[in-house]
Design a protein that fits this description.
The protein has about 400 residues and is α/β, with parallel strands linked by helices. It has 13 helices and 15 strands. The strands form three sheets. A nine-stranded mixed β-sheet has the order 5-4-1-8-9-10-11-12-13, with helices on both faces.
Length: about 400
Amino acid sequence: MSHDHDPMLHALATDFDRQEILVIGDVMLDRYLWGQVQRISPEAPVPIVRLTRESEGLGGAANVAMNLARLGVRPRMAGLIGSDADGQRLRQALEQAGVDAALVQEVADWPTITKTRVVGGHQQMLRLDREEPLAAGTVQEALLAAILEQLDQRAPPAVIILSDYAKGVLTKALCQAVIARARAGGIPVLVDPKGKAYDKYRGATALSPNRSELGAAVGMETDQLEPLLVAGEQLRQRLEIDFLAVTLSEHGIALLEGEGEPRHLPAAARAVFDVSGAGDTVIATLAAGLAVGLSRLDALRLANLAAGVVVGKVGTTPITRDELHAAVISGNERQQAEKCLALEQAAALVATWRARGERVVWTNGCFDLIHAGHVTYLEKARRLGNRLVVGLNTDRSVRALKGPERP
């Protein structure tokens, strides 16, 4: 296995289970209406979607917490929901996923933010948002008081994530109070930002804006990447942020940390079906990586691979630990020697291939020594599917078949 991957694989195998991460932000309920499009409506030039099924998931900051839970981290969630049926479903889904939702508070006469997406085949056709503005005031003050009280009374989290969807939970006062408390306790604070008023994130450990969000924050067009990243570095210095992780869609991720030129990680996705929730996966995986002691670059590599997995799915779908493990093993930079895997690693990789609809072919042999007949046989096996898994007989098995002097 490549030494570059060893820290990431070790973290996935052992360390994630012991970490607690606190997520604060705008929680939402995602509802999906799935169907097929076969014709255009005679009433208006719009497609008719024949509904086949419905599903619900967690969105916004709640999706960040769900990503952490699927990775094996123990997440805590702080946010606001309405005192309505959607809010209760959201809270129940958090608790069923293993998320500590004690800091999720109900707000009277305010609807839980709900996004309903209509999907025809693999294409999102329409999105309906149910939300009302949340004015700054006593609701956020009460939430902040509960957060600070829990930070005083419980063991501190390894990392705090501020997941901002500009819905009103993360006011400047709340952000600055949390950042100040975290800095005093040596707790990293990672921010998935929104809007133009980045001053409220001053002093955080890291920001993870996408290209358009960074452009809005620095007041620049986004067509020229190099000057945009220069402005991003200036923003980082002005706000006293340790580093920026700028997600760049098909161009991967850029790491800005004030040491020479930005470091670029190429995009890991092979096919992009839906970018919904990809930013949530990036911030969650980055936080998990830092929590277990990975370097910024290794944690960002892990986050980049995770994003490559989730954009290949339709809908807001969290990354799982097995999927991320398989993505690390099958990364684009994988060397020939890295194709030799233990059984549990191979099983995780096969599960990922099958989830993509790929056909996996299995064969095995002694290959002692490998000859032209073996090569022809393996070439033919490879043509039977998308992926070929070759099992190598153990030395004991080879000796039983071929005698005590083999292999």
